[in-house]
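Following up on my earlier thread - several people asked me to post the actual chain instead of describing it. Fair enough. Here it is, all 754 residues.
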Amino acid sequence: GGDTCEYLLSSGRFLGEKVWQPHSCMMHKYKNSEAKNCLIDKHVVFIGDSRIRQLFYSFIKLINPQVKEEGIKHGNIPFEDKSASIKVDFLWYPEVNGSMRQRIKSWTEGSVAKPHIIVVGAATWSIKIHNGSNEALAQYKINITSIAPLLEKLAISSDVYWVLQDPVYEDMLSESRKMITNEKIDAYNEAAVRILNSSSRNSKARVKVFSVSKLIAQETIMKSADGLHLPESSRDTNAMILMNVYCNKIMKPIDGSCCQPQPPLTLIQKIAFCFFTLSIIGYLIISLIHRNNYRKNKSCTDLESGEEKKPAISTPNISTLEMLLQCFCKLGLIMTYFYLCDRANLFMKENKFYTHSSFFIPIVYILVLGVFYTENTKETKVLNREQTDEWKGWMQLVILIYHISGASTFLPVYMHIRVLVAAYLFQTGYGHFSYFWIKGDFGVYRVCQVLFRLNFLVVVLCIVMDRPYQFYYFVPLVTVWFMIIYATLAVWPQIVQKKANGNCLWHFGLLLKLICLLTCIYFLSYSQGAFEKIFSFWPLSKCFELNGNVYEWWFRWKLDRYVVFHGMLFAFIYLALQKRQMISEGKGDPLFSNRVSNVLLFVSIVSFLTYSIWASSCKNKTECNELHPSVSVVQILAFVLIRNVPGYVRSVYSSFFAWFGKISLELFICQYHIWLAADTKGILVLIPGYPMFNVLVSTFIFVCVAHEISQITNDLAQIVVPKDNSTLLKRLLCIAGFFSGLHFFSAMQDQSRH
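Reply from S.P.:
Thanks for posting it. Predicted structure:
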């Protein structure tokens, strides 16, 4: 934690050649519209020499990129954006002298309008004009000493920044600038820092020393055109830092953690904190009572025989209440860790930076690990439980590496990851259709169990982390698709395998249902208005709105709109072939005859590679996303056939990947806050200065927490969703009351915010 503003202004490093990473926090890249919204009705002044003029131009280009550097070189340059009432002025004062002092003093007197932001800096002209003399340095100290109180006074109501002098590249300096040495610059900077007294932490009424420019210049000054002025990319970085220092506390961007204060606890968060605290206290009290009772019943030594007598009960029975409190006790401690990682300013956060090696090397590493843990499957059916767990596992690990490496900036990787997300939804369609088709179980218990397991963690995180339900978009997506699958098969007439076996016409009835579903999907995907009307009705709007509208939900749903249907259709065809014994699922046997299997395998490999070539040649994300819903099934089906047609491949699985597959949902959700940071925009830093060690430690904690949450969810599902219908009905009424209370407190919270 600490003062991230101070870190932003004074320290950092380059990721690659152009991406600047401040120490401990994340920098937001401001767009023109965002810069205008932040600086609306503001007056910004840059005072200094040609280096400050460079910073001035880079700053106004953040507001209007069309600006050209055509102003008077040795004179004042005004800039105004009338649409947002923004004024930015450059005032030519190349030396710290009486003229500069008089200008600054004019803002401190009377009712003169003061600039909101003042950026000051100068020294190289003093060195040049006086040929680097010691007398000039002494006069510089006197002049800064006279200006410092005025700047301090201005800093009470304005943001004042003193820009330290950047180093020069002495070999490239012209003869007229040879006296400007880095030794002299360091002496001037040291004098300025000492006089402005920036050694202690800055408060609101203190001049902020902009020293980070020195670090940036040390890395890039050799690319300078004249050895004195910074290259354009470096001064653009300085301007972006300046924008982050001032605007982050106003705009509060998710991926701009620098200079952002810790958000205050909401009413719902306070209630959650009290609930978890009481759960921990309650569990400790019950545990102590049980432990005392257990000690009383503990075996004692028979003095006559010398043998130990064992009590009738060797371990204490755990009551439902104790199990419930134990789960909430663990969950409370875990949620505290979540909050500290991503809401409190306790741990550092850093921006992502993509390199090919940061993505592909870990991929190769986990692939080797997965192959090493190969075992025989218990059953050899197509997409058996072990195989689907393995599939979910390796996909989830690849997605995690994709997120932490920032690989979304590389389009071919992005397109392949989109297929992995689609494959998870394909499994949703396949798995739930197979269950309802074979079991014919449309009871409330089944529905409640699935909904609880899918949504429990997300609901808790919405409360603790103060985020809307739609923020964790994947869970709403699989939840809605589960309900669509359920509704499709449960509505009259209910067609299941047992009924269809008696009369083949029922198969056509089911196909008719699937065609109706496909028609509805097609209509909604091309009718944004109808889709938004459906999900804008209360209470659906409370679940699916993000930033006041449901566009984000429509975009997410549309991106993989057909793949669940493809999963359902594949399950129907596969189960029909299996029932008619048209496929062979014996251990080591190919799925079809050798000839058919070889043809299918060849076609699948060609299709798989063809899709990869197409995805790798994508040039435009929008155009590729438009085609993705229709073509992603090609690679998914190709993979399924490659994995299942050869008997020897179908008979083995990776227990390493399968283990991760069992907690894939928890891994996907937990990464938002305790592996990544700033709601997935950055990377959590538990151990600064050691990137690889940090990733190892944070990953270990992250995986352990995800596994523990999976266990907690399973335990609570047995308690909250019982099989007895009357008890289940009571629990559902309690859950309805809980959400009503949550809605009430949420409304109070929103009202207090407004």
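The first strand starts at residue 12 and ends at 15. That should answer part of your original question.
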